[in-house]
């Protein structure tokens, strides 16, 4: 067996299952899960129609790993509409089977484990794929500290110079999981300067970019690069997905875009990795990327939902409307003495509502786990169900005085 596998930690939802083992939730309440960030809004009919219409011709041959030209063109057209960016579909865009597998695979492509101290840096708290990708690439992870006083924004200045010197890959997530925070242009400027100085690649995870609550949409890493005169996107790859944007998590469709010098070896790796996207999925993806009306409606649904749920919870918890994404990152009330696991377990047992302990989304670094004492709530179900969950949580907290 690959000895690096032993370094992988259980996934957060496996830890959650272990936490709930042996508990029979209160039968007076039907189960409501705010645990997994799996979109539950209806998939648009036109996407399903395109998927089924391609079945007769889409299953008869092996698809190219680079994707069909029509799909790459659709992705490029979306980048033009969304960010006013012009990318070469042939060299700067590559379809992927959802952002998750691509985020993992990039580390296997760009990390050189033969270099002493090979390091992959990412925020803390974080999406666990970053950590697993670092371990299995042969690198060491570095958990960049976050500042709770600034909505858990990453304190890049606290990362030692000797860590940056051995960094080969930096993962960033904006809008962030679990906090929903969006990185401003000045933060990108700082990271690009560090990349220029030390030569590391930046992987920008942007899968929540189309669910936002402010008037100004989130800034993409590619957009920031262009604004700062880096139109070649040197050492930058952005990852995006249809899962949240179009409510098709089962489609497993997204794309990466950026530095052509990185896309080329990434395509080579993926050719051997067997990561070609099915033509059936490509057909559905083309029409999804071409339409914005369903995205606007999806964003409206989330805005309406958060506008109703957030005030209820903010009356009893430390929680506020995020910049973007579909998560609430909430502080556990004092009655639970900072134990996010006790809070999640008690809530499940008494009110049959599932939330994810924040400590499962972070690692102890510098003597503390930044997720400790917080829980992540994924408001992915329909509004009525999320409201019912919020009302139960309010009752749960108030019952503890």
How are the elements arranged and paired?
Layout: H1 12-20, E1 32-33, H2 45-53, H3 55-58, H4 69-83, E2 93-96, H5 99-110, E3 119-123, H6 128-136, E4 140-144, E5 146-147, E6 153-154, H7 161-166, E7 167-173, H8 185-198, E8 201-205, H9 221-227, E9 236-241, H10 242-246, E10 254-258, H11 260-273, H12 279-290, H13 293-314, E11 327-331, H14 340-351, E12 353-354, E13 356-357, E14 374-378, H15 383-398
Parallel strand pairs: 1-12, 3-4, 3-7, 7-8, 8-9
Antiparallel strand pairs: 2-10, 5-6, 9-10, 11-14, 13-14
Helix pairs in contact: 2-12, 4-12, 5-6, 5-11, 13-15
How far do the termini sit from each other?
A: 52 Å
Mean pLDDT: 97
Largest sheet: 7 strands, mixed
Supply Rg.
Answer: 21 Å
Instruction: Give the overall shape, derived from the CA principal axes.
Output: globular
Strand order within the widest sheet?
2-10-9-8-7-3-4
Strand tally, please? 14
Element-level helix/strand string = HEHHHEHEHEEEHEHEHEHEHHHEHEEEH
**Beta-strand level of the residues, as a percent range?**
5-15%
The residue ranges in which pLDDT falls below 50 over 5 or more consecutive positions are none
Helical amount among residues, as a percent range?
40-55%
Q: Helix segment count?
A: 15
Instruction: Specify the structural class.
Output: alpha/beta
Gist?
This protein is α/β, with parallel strands linked by helices and 401 residues long. It has helices spanning 12-20, 45-53, 55-58, 69-83, 99-110, 128-136, 161-166, 185-198, 221-227, 242-246, 260-273, 279-290, 293-314, 340-351, 383-398; strands spanning 32-33, 93-96, 119-123, 140-144, 146-147, 153-154, 167-173, 201-205, 236-241, 254-258, 327-331, 353-354, 356-357, 374-378.
